[in-house]
Structure formats: C-alpha cells, structure tokens
Design a protein that fits this description.
single chain; Rossmann fold; 2 domains; eight-stranded mixed beta sheet; six-stranded parallel beta sheet; 16 helices; globular; glycosyltransferase; GDP-mannose-dependent alpha-(1-6)-phosphatidylinositol dimannoside mannosyltransferase; Glyco_trans_1
Length: 368
C-alpha cells in the first residue's frame, strides 16, 4: 500500500513518480493501492493499480495542495486492506503510519521527496527540521532518498536506515525526436535563443530567477525569449514582474507529449530551485536532448552531471552563456546520454528491491 500527501491533479514530479512506480509495481505482478487526498472520495482502478482518494483540506498558500489530515478514515482503510508492505511519500500528517505498521510487523518505507530543512528554512523555522527528521527516520524501517543530497539531512543525524534509489524518466515520451520547428516558431524566430522554465510556480521553486536570467541576457544583447510552462500561486506576480520582457506564460499542460515537445524544442531549460531533491522536470529536459542550468546548492548537479551547468541560483544567465558556447549537437547528445542512465524500469527495480518484493522483476523491461 502507498500513501502520499501534497498531490493534486496538477502537481508534477510527485504525481509522475507515483504513477510510474505504480505502473511498474503492477507490471511486476504486485497488487498496489495508492491513497491520496482530494476534494471527495473516489475509488478507481488504473494502470498504476487501485487509487483511492480521501477528502483532505487544502493547505493555505500552496495553490491547491491537499493533505490527509484525519487519521480515522486512513486507519480504517489500512485495517481493511491489511497491506503486506507500506510505502509513504510524506513526513507530515502521515508519520503515524510508520508506528502503525511496526506494531503489526509490516515492513515500511518512507520516501523523502522534499528537503524539510529547505522548506522550513524558507519560512524561518529551520530549527524544527532536525527533530522532525529524526522522528521520521525512527518511525519507519527504511528511509528511501532519491539522491545523496536528499539523504544528508538524515545522515547527519546518525540515521542508519537510509537507502538511495534514483527516480527515472520516460525515455520514449521525452526524446529529442520530439523537437518541433513549428512549435518553436510560436515562441521564437530562428535566430533567437529559446529558454524554457517548466515547473510549479511556487516560492520554493524560485521561478523568479528564470525571469531575472532572461532580463540579464537581454541586457547583454543575447536575443533570448522565455517560455514559462506551469501554474501556481506566484503566477500573477511573475507576470507583473516580467513587464515587457519576451516571456510567454503557458498554464499547466496536461498532455505529456506537448510538454515533451516543448522541452525538446528548447535551446536551454532553466531549473532554478535551490532545494530540489531530484528534479524530474530537469531530467525530462535532458531526455529530450536539452541541456539544463541548475542551482548548485540543490541535488540537481548530482543528477545532471556534465550534461548541464550548475551556477549560483541568482546567476543562471552565466550558465546559459556557458551552454550556448558549446556546439549544439554535442550539448544535446550529452543531455540525452545522461538521461539514459535513469530509465523507470531501473527505478522500479530499485524500489521493489528495497521492499523485498522482487517477484516479477524480469517482466519489467517488456511491460513498462
């Protein structure tokens, strides 16, 4: 059984990871149930297994994220479904499920999808991160981190139950062949540099830095334009801040193939978030053949390697200039080659190995 908070119809990385892992578990022959918050109760069966939505309140100022706040309906489902294993993508209102599982001798895994130290630090409450992380590590049998960077906030507390398994990318959907000259002409002329920022427009993602990078490049005479693909609570402010800069705001794009075409058509993709623990959007850009500029303080340098550039988050423009100085064919080939290290079948196998549930793994290459 899998539980997750902070999932909406428009949330990106976490929803993608849950879907891809669920489809992989199902393809490997496992019965899976995912419980997430929503505005009403639903119970559906899909390619990722059974998905149950329980009513959960919206967290203020997050642009629509919901949480499973009430224990009773979650506990009722846990008791009714009697899972063999528990996987929890949350360390807030669902931490109690680790103790529930331990009392019943059910193996449990908490997946760390965010930097708690980073999130709390952004609101001046960083002192709470260590005690909360210590409780999370003690509550579950295993803490699964997707990068070494993500694991450091647990490792420095002495947690000994850490494992690292990278996430993946759909190497077929996100592919350089989706580069679209006609799509490019919607945003830029042939001699213009097309920048893309793809992600949620919220404070922890620092989308303002992408607009400032465009401003700096234009001031230096670089004929760049920026497409911002995504939605969130900062959208209106960002549109005001962009002023008369050539910025095109695209709201949430539900069609993955459209997103893939946009990423493949970009010259450079910007991923300025300073507390990203993995960065699926950046990896999707690499798979599409587009290099990425990232914040060097995040986990993204670990993921992108030499297929992009890591800079001070306030100076993304320098990273763009560095990438544009490389031959286009070489930088695009390097991006794709780096992404090919991160297929979803390998991620699914890694997660199932952590669960000790490897039955059916040989089918993954054919089924996912």
């Amino acid at each position: 059984m899998r539980l997750a908070n902070f999932v909406t119809a428009r949330s990106g990385g976490l929803r993608t990871a849950l879907r891809e892992l669920g489809e992989g578990y199902t393809a490997a022959g496992h019965d899976t149930v995912l419980i997430v918050p929503g505005d009403s109760y639903t119970d559906e069966v899909s390619a990722q297994g059974r998905v149950i939505t329980l009513p959960g309140p919206v967290v203020p100022f997050t642009g629509g994220y919901r949480v499973l706040l009430r224990k009773r309906p979650v506990r009722r489902l846990l008791e009714e479904l009697a899972p063999d294993r528990l996987e929890v993508s949350d360390r807030f209102t669902l931490r109690w499920t680790g103790r529930w599982a331990r009392e019943r001798a059910i193996p449990s895994v908490m997946v760390s999808h965010e930097s708690l130290a980073g999130l709390l630090g952004a609101i001046g409450m960083s002192r709470l991160a260590d005690p909360l992380n210590a409780r999370s590590a003690a509550s579950y049998d295993t803490v699964l981190c997707t990068t070494a960077w993500a694991g450091r906030e647990f490792a420095r507390l002495g947690a000994e139950n850490l494992v690292r398994v990278p996430l993946g990318v759909d190497l077929e959907v996100f592919h350089p062949r989706r580069r679209d000259p006609d799509l490019r002409l919607r945003y830029a002329s042939p001699d213009t540099v097309l920048l893309v920022h793809c992600g949620r427009l919220s404070s922890e993602k620092r989308p303002d830095r992408s607009i400032e990078a465009l401003r700096a490049l234009r001031a230096e005479g670089v004929p760049a334009v920026l497409v911002v693909a995504g939605d969130g609570p900062l959208r209106d402010r960002l549109e005001r801040d962009a002023g008369d800069l050539p910025v095109r705001f695209e709201r949430f794009i539900p069609d993955r193939h459209h997103v893939a075409a946009l990423l493949a058509t970009a010259d450079v993709v910007l991923a300025p978030g300073p507390i990203e623990t993995f960065g699926l959007a950046a990896l999707e850009a690499l798979a599409s053949g587009s290099p990425v500029v990232v914040d060097r303080t995040s986990a993204l340098p670990e993921v992108i390697g030499d297929a992009g550039v890591a800079t001070d988050g306030a100076d993304l423009a320098s990273g763009v200039r560095e990438l544009l100085a490389r031959p286009e064919a070489a930088r695009r080939a390097a991006a794709r080659a780096r992404a090919e290290r991160y297929g979803w079948p390998a991620a699914v196998e890694g997660f199932l190995t952590v669960h000790g549930a490897t039955v059916g793994l040989r089918a993954l290459g054919r089924s996912i």
